[in-house]
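Deviations from the work plan: none for this task. Representative record:
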Amino acid sequence: MSDNDRKQFEPRIIAFFCNWCTYTAADLAGTARMAYSPNVRVIRIMCSGRLDPQFILKAFREGADGVLIGGCHPGDCHYQEGNYKALRRFTLLKRFLNMMGIEKERIRLEWIAASEGDKVQKVINEMTEQVRKLGPLKLEPASQLQPQNDRVSRVEPVTIAEGEAS
Amino acid sequence: MSTVNIPSPNGQPKIGVYVCHCGINIAGRVDVKETVAFAKTLPNVTVATEYKFMCSDPGQEMIQKDLRDGKIDRVVVASCSPLMHEPTFRRAMIAADANPFLFQMANIREHVSWVTLDKNAATEKAKALIAAAVKRIVLHRPLEKTRVPVTSDVLVVGGGIAGIHAALTLAEAGRKVYLVEKEPTIGGHMAKFDKTFPTLDCSACILTPKMSAVRAHPNIILWTYSEVAEVEGFVGNFKVKVKRKPRYIKEDLCVGCYECVEACVFKKGITKDEFNVGLSKRRPIYIPFPQATPLVAVIDPETCVQIKRNKCKKPCVDACERDAIDFDQKVEIKEIDVGAIILATGFKTFDASRISRYGYGKYPNIYTSLEVERMVNAAGPTGGEVHLQNGEKPKTVGIVHCVGSRDSKTNAYCSRVCCMYSLKLAHLIKERTEAEVYNFYIDMRTPGKGYEEFYEKLLKENVHFIRGRVAEISDWATIPEEEGKLVIRAEDTLIGAVRRIPVDMVVLSVGMEPHENVDEVRRLFNVSCSHEGWFLERHPKLAPVSTFTDGVFLAGACQGPKDIPDSVAQAGAAAAEALALIDRGYVELEPNTAYLQEEFCSGCKTCLGLCPYGAISFNDEKNISSVNGALCKGCGTCVAACPSGALQQNLFTDEQILHEIEGVISYV
Amino acid sequence: MSYIYYPGCSLKSTGRAYEDSLLAVFEALDIPLQELEDWNCCGATAYMSISELKAFALSARNFALAERQNGENDFAEMVVPCAACYLGLNKAHRYLAEHPELRETIDRALEAGGLKYNDKIHVRHPLDVLINDLTPDKITGLVKRPLEGLKVACYYGCQLVRPYSDFDDQHDPQTMDKIVKMLGGEVVNWPLKTRCCGGSLTGIVQDVGLRLSYILLAEARKRGCDLIVTACPLCQFNLECYQSRISGIYGHKIKIPVIYFTQLMGHAFGLSDEMLGLKRVFVSPARAFSKAEGGQHVHG
């Protein structure tokens, strides 16, 4: 933190919510006056399937510290299966971001149904705290990029010394 | 649509930003003056102003005047959710001869003022959303809505009182209606009731004429013992497959004479009679009840010897003079085209055995309210007599309210009808048996026309009322008077003491619950559910019978617990909404479809497998993809996958979204 | 699956018969029970009412020990027969999972003792294990002396099913009923199966405690039951040991055997009275057992 007064870091988080479930749920959270942290800014898309990975990369490049994606629950997609497509891309992208040095905790995908206003509140608050703990995103120059350890760790045989259990 | 106003001949867009106070809904938390001042500093903004209620006529006129005066050619309104008022402002733009898609809303109410506690943070967030809208709208292009003709037929799912009323209303208006019911007869729960509150009208007397009207109406096609199997298409143009289960009786030949039923090899009932909720038994071939509609027999494949084991003398076949019995009937799939769908799938009653301390299923003489409804019905299994398992009339009866309602362990909600029907049953039981009747209630809820008066009447009939939730019902006697009785233990909160009331018979007033297969059904019709499993209306106040899927409407208790008058009123409303849709003759589709920029398409075919609607095909001649805009529903999944960016989505192009990202982050 | 057995203080003292019969029955069923080494008080009775923190710390230490003893296995299945221990450990389990601040304090306390709790514990009651981890035929297959005609009242008491456990119905529990039926016995409808036995009151406000015990016993007698089975050392003690005093106070002769469900199982399995601690009883079940065997008096 560069601030002289060392005040609490306020992360910048961009959310992409699908029109039919999660955006509606966020509206419901509003109607029900469920207060949540102001750090998340929502961009509406028709379906989580519209989420082009370049949007997420763009968000990070523009200075976002985290990205949240909200779609309909599996089986509930307004367009039948856009959310499954989103999930596949998300899984791949998370690994890719990790390799670029962006922690996987900075990106989160949640299924939130139209009736789950309380879940919007909970997820946004959790996400804000999670990203706040990580601190601001620092993108390193390309030359210093090192893939983080996301390969399956080699299993070391574990031995327990006799008598240790007591 | 009016003439398209192609903006900015000189290439410089002119954006108007209008910030709404929404009374104090927004202005109470967001510093509107500051956001307006901020908006003025944004590139291409030529007008930035504020108003108390942008959605009001004067608010809309402000926009229209600025458009007509040429001060602006694009509009950003910072107010509520686009799901709320986007159509309002788009209409306002059309009225001002502007293209309605040169418009963007910043949601600073639901997403800002209502959910942010800190005023500064709220103002900053509002600014960011306005900046994003301004940044994105520069790239908006004029678009046209496409019009699609609407099929005028309507599907009504569920043949209870709500479905019946909706179907009749539409049929009277000259529309063709398909009424699909999963049971062998229509009538639903109302057909099982004896009297209706608060008027004590005979339920059958007011329902059966409507059932007959359904049967007789030339505009209604009634398919009972049938279920919707598949729904495709969209508002105005649904393609529906209905599965008609075999009833092994030719419906057009059967006249409901009961000869086959009498002839069955089983001389008595052998299985639970669904209509009498298990209080009596029926044979494998049966007619649910004498006023069943259609009045046609049905054979239950689970118990019929001929169907199960293929060996029966089949006396039913011999008995039927009209040769209506057909053991070779198979499942039949009907395909229909409809413009609108009304869901009226109703409810189920709470399973009282889930509350073990009430002893249902353990002690005889503990009944659910629905069982007692059948008992007090003159056409019911006891001929209207209320009696105990041993045939005697009860001398004392306890009615337990809120079984499976207002209880965080089962259902937290109030089922709305139980207080009133408990009063009704108290009256009927007293009338039939002269028993002492005790009502155990948490609160008496009688909000309805004539309802409170009915409660007053019951008080005068010397029915006892004990205010307190029942803790337990058992046969544990502590004094001689309790021996051989069911003892109801409850705290009487008005006298502040625990009471033990010994009774002969207990009625558990069970609440209403969504059907078990509600998830399947909602997915079939693409509608949402509340936490409890009730179908979710589009807006709880202003769109109570619409859903988030255009063209699918709700009626009756599938949307939430309600009584008969409310169900009928809602069914009428749903029918009217469906009529409004159909009678316009067309629907306008949101032009947010995908389109292909042919020059960028490399013919990689990535998009082909992604479209769930088959809107993308491959043009072998040009070796590129091709999008059929009429089939596209605008999800954008293909657009996100296109490696070359050749596919784009109207209103959600890559550039528009990237601009929105820049905007939202440029001011955090 | 292997289980870690947490006895608690009662099963080593007043509830010895419970321990003896439980171990014998589990051995007959071929379910290995490994006693938790260096276990300490569950924290239930005295601690919980005076200092919850200490109670939770004691429970947490037991959890940490069980995890360590469990080695690399996934969850430690901790079998807790005493109803009070079961409630106390279950409560601690829930609170440690749901209250991060409490958890932090407890973690620090454990750390000072070189221990760590990783949430890898399932707190299980033997009834839960018998009904949910076994197929019914494992129990029925061992029955050598079916309890035909024996009328049994199953007494669960207050702590076994409320409020943190979820293996049985809270108001009308069924697991013990099911076991009695598997053994061939007849379960008496006895609506008092979760009502208070008097608990600790019998020791401090004795007339109240004895009255509560009397209510249960009198109703069981009235319903014609031959035998009461229970799963709690305190309930067993209260209901059995004061019967002559209760008979004196209420002028109503009461003599009903009150034994642990594991003793009844062991008897049906043909195990000896010695193995099952049946020699320790005040009110002998011999007459009840002989009724089940058609009047033929058999001792194992």
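Chain B touches chain A through 53 residues (CB under 8 Å).
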